[in-house]
Amino acid sequence: MAISNKVRNFMEQGSWIRKMFEEGIALKQQYGEENVFDLSLGNPVMDPPQRFYEELKKISENPIKGMHRYMPNAGLEETRAAVADSLSTETGLTFAANHIVMTCGAGGALNVVMKTLLDPGDEFVIFAPFFVEYNFYADNHGGSCKVVPPDENFLPDMDIFRASINENTRGVLINSPNNPSGVLYGDETLLEMSKIIQEKEDEFGIEIYLVSDEPYRKIIFDGIEYPHIFNYHKRSIVATSHSKDLALPGERIGYIAVNPDCPDVEEILDGLVFCNRTLGFVNAPALIQYLVAHLQGTTIDVGVYEKKRDYLYKALTDMGYSLIKPQGAFYMFPKSPTEDDVQFTEELKGNRVLVVPGRGFGLPGYFRISYCLDDATIEGSLSGLGKAISAYK
Ligand SMILES: Cc1ncc(COP(=O)(O)O)c(C=O)c1O
């Protein structure tokens, strides 16, 4: 056997999105590219903002001596200072460059945070529906995830959350706005969560870190203000990236920000920098760090996603789908008209529409639609989405 049983099992559990991707290729070969509507991938079709290309041009015309060399493992001072300034303005707290570690995307950031915090047997509490990689990331570092189910609005079931924390809990990991539901955790939710965390810290005499995975933080709609976790729990850490807000997922650029008021903040930062190095990332890619230092105030046009959300939400509800209106990110998570979400995704596939079954996000009975796509793909998918639900009426 070439690979471990564990990895073999994980590959089966985590293969829904890839499976849809491969089936999409086969369908496209059969019916032609323009006749298959692939709503399964969260890979934005949008290009980065014009400002990104201006910065790229500037640096290519005026290269900085030594810019491609190794650097401090935490990243470029200039970039970390720019991130810190921007976070200070957003949150009202005082961030300095040394509260920031530049990372290879949010995925890299989460692995660095988990490696820094987890001892073997430790746990992170996560909330369904969740980004499937969380379980694998925790396992990478000898830990595991305990899953809390949602209420009917995709917010945490607080009683189960309270009961999920035990003496092995090291972290609570949230993702808002959420992939796959698009739901944003508001002030009330964060307040209740932080009270429960505090209560359990006292009960067990432990320290629990609230970790926020927020690559969609800047993609929020309806004029909502983003509630930053730093204001709710002192032991708080943000893991994020510019994969979505600057449409740069292939460039692998993100960062970790530690609450300046976090107890033991220096020790944590030393740990994070060490883990960024020893996980083999060494440092985040250099060239892109030089660019994002000048792009902290720049975001893709969020209005484009908001329009797509409005269009698709109306179309789906008119067809009879039951779904919560997303407040951010670029996904929707409608209820499957039949309990078996895999059966329904097969029905959609028969109508040449590809989506991901909810069980790929720890919540069977739903399915995920990505709408970070061009309008033609979204519009083209409506006929198949309509036919599929009609089959269950
Ligand atoms: C919730 C969530 N977290 C983390 C990531 C990883 O992002 P990155 O590309 O920055 O590693 C993604 C990517 O889709 C995501 O949806």
Short description:
This protein is of the alpha/beta class. It has helices at 5-13, 16-31, 50-61, 77-91, 105-117, 133-140, 158-164, 187-204, 265-278, 286-292, 302-319, 341-350, 375-390, and strands at 37-38, 100-103, 123-127, 144-148, 169-174, 209-213, 236-241, 254-258, 331-332, 353-354, 356-357, 367-370.
Order of helices and strands: HHEHHEHEHEHEHEEEHHHEHEEEH
**Spatial extent as radius of gyration:** 21 Å
Overall average residue pLDDT: 96
The small molecules bound here are: pyridoxal-5'-phosphate
The biggest beta sheet reads: 7 strands, mixed
- CATH-derived topology of the largest domain: Aspartate Aminotransferase, domain 2
Percent in helix: 40-55%
| Count of folded domains | 2
Number of strands: 12
Distance between the termini: 47 Å
Count of helical segments?
Answer: 13
Residue fraction in strands: 5-15%
Widest sheet: strand ordering: 2-8-7-6-5-3-4
Looking at CATH, the homologous superfamily of the largest domain is: Type I PLP-dependent aspartate aminotransferase-like (Major domain)
CATH class of the largest domain: Alpha Beta
